[in-house]
Specification:
globular, 0% strand, mainly alpha, Serine Threonine Protein Phosphatase 5, Tetratricopeptide repeat, 207 residues
């Protein structure tokens, strides 16, 4: 799993870096516009940190990613992404990551960590969770139904996209965007789009 995970993380990192202009534009409508640059900086550092780490275990890779994102992104986004990866790393030590169930538990642990660090964020709050949670469970359900990893990633993309689309008509309840109240309606949440970017990168990698 570790070698495959390494390649997937590099693919995700490159996709996030490339998506910076779009993420910045989306975040500028609702926040301070730093989402894109923060994620670009964080995942650029991830690529540097993981150089020569192809042979590391999945748990060690996830720990390195978590620490790197917390240190390089900073703020709420760094804490949320860092906690997600740290929770996934911890779960790797408790389950068999060579099984569908084990991988599902790792993904859910990351999701729950992000929700907790985001002040118990839930679907409907107009955050990354609106795309993240549906994507995780769509992947889980597809794999449990016997679909390949690539097919499960395709299901995750569709779920993440639908979740991100749903944020356009929401009123933000968390973060800086919540200060806008009704004015936050009509804009896509940048964090949710970041999840779409990640899912699409994984879909392409596992195709």
């Amino acid at each position: 799993m570790a070698k495959t995970l390494y390649g997937a993380i590099i693919a995700v990192s490159e996709a996030i870096i490339e998506a910076e202009p779009v993420l910045t534009e989306l975040d500028s409508a609702l926040g301070d516009g730093d989402c894109g640059m923060g994620l670009k900086t964080g995942f650029s550092e991830v690529i540097k940190t993981l150089q020569g780490a192809e042979g590391d275990s999945a748990q060690d890779l996830l720990k390195k990613i978590a620490k790197t994102l917390i240190a390089s992104i900073g703020g709420t986004s760094g804490a949320i992404y860092g906690t997600a990866f740290m929770r996934m790393a911890a779960m790797c030590g408790k389950v068999d990551t060579g099984t569908v169930e084990g991988v599902s538990q790792v993904l859910i642990a990351g999701l729950e960590g992000a929700k907790m660090r985001g002040e118990d964020t839930k679907i409907g709050d107009k955050t990354m969770i609106d795309a993240y949670e549906p994507a995780v469970y769509a992947f889980k359900e597809a794999r449990e139904a016997g679909k390949s990893v690539g097919e499960a990633c395709t299901a995750a993309v569709a779920a993440a996209q639908a979740g991100s689309d749903s944020t356009i008509d929401m009123i933000a309840k968390k973060g800086r965007a919540s200060y806008l109240g009704e004015r936050s309606k009509g804009h896509r949440d940048a964090g949710s789009y970041g999840i779409v970017v990640i899912c699409k990168a994984l879909e392409a990698y596992y195709a």
